[in-house]
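Hey L., structure's done. Input below.
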Amino acid sequence: MKKVLSLVLIAVLCFGLMAGCGSEEELAENLYDAYDLPSMVTLPDYNGYSFEEEEVTVTDEDIDDTVQVFLEGLATTEEVTEGTAEKGDTVKIAFEGVLDNGYTSDGMKSEGTTITLGNAGYIDGFEAGLYGATIGEEVVLKLQFPENYGEDELNGQPVTFKVTVLSKTVSTIPELTDKLVKENSNYKTIEKFREAAAEELEKLMKEEEVIRVKGLIYDKLFGEAEVPALIEEEVQREMDRLEANYKDIAEIYGQEWEEFLETNMSFTEEEFLEELKTYGEDIVKSKMIVYTFARAEEIAVTQEEYDAALEEAMFSLGISEPSLFEMYMGCTIEEYGELNHIHLNLTLDKALDKIYPNVVKNAAA
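Output:
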């Protein structure tokens, strides 16, 4: 079982999840309501679709994985100043580098930097040279900067680093006991925790299976729907919206537009516009099909549902207040919703929910 599923499960077991439903009184704004979509899109006979749900099985290993994630979440850490450093350890190091010609700089020395060995991005040989190093003892590393390091003084130059591992961070995972379970979950014993884990795992796995089948339904619907002509003004709207977003990002980075395209996206202006047009056409085709499908099923997204989805997106990004969203993200939460097509996704999910039981029933017939 994927660890992400265990993480979701721990949230359910320890804290619970809340869900709500929207009112039918007010619908969220949708620009595609202005178009006669049924005359523009021919939908396939999706009522005859047949997709089978695969049976899900919760194994002891799945439950063990969930228990392990639970324990890892309760782990404590401390810095130790004895032992050795190994690949994957988080360590604090002091170092100083000097070229063979005697040159050094502030960037080649530190009195205390914390890194994860094997994942810190230092020049070849630096981190590997610390594997097995004794904490507190100096290690001398004779290395060489890459030819294209990016600093004229250092490119291709031999260098000697004197490095001391000052400490490393050690994580201690607690032992699973009834007392631990009682103090950190809604359950009093290991047995009850595992039983609840099994029930929630089955629920989550079934939800994942529904998502998989929904994806198959949409893929077939999208592939078989006929859209002879796209709504060009909507294609241009999508292109303009995305281009403006990228230009805002370039401004945040303090880069000229052409520089941003070249260094951050590896595009020329012409290549970018080609990609932009492809993107705009793909999104508009998707929206035309989905909103035609939704009309056929008499589905619409309420304002309450849309607002709740925006709030969920905001919280998923670690932002607690709408007033802070633009400061951190460079756009309002409403603009973010448009850029990420949240209304489209909500509409599709509601429409698929409506036809899903019949599609699965067809498979069972």
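Residues 23-52+206-364 form a domain with the Trigger factor, domain 2 fold (CATH 1.10.3120). The longest strand covers residues 158-172.

-- N.
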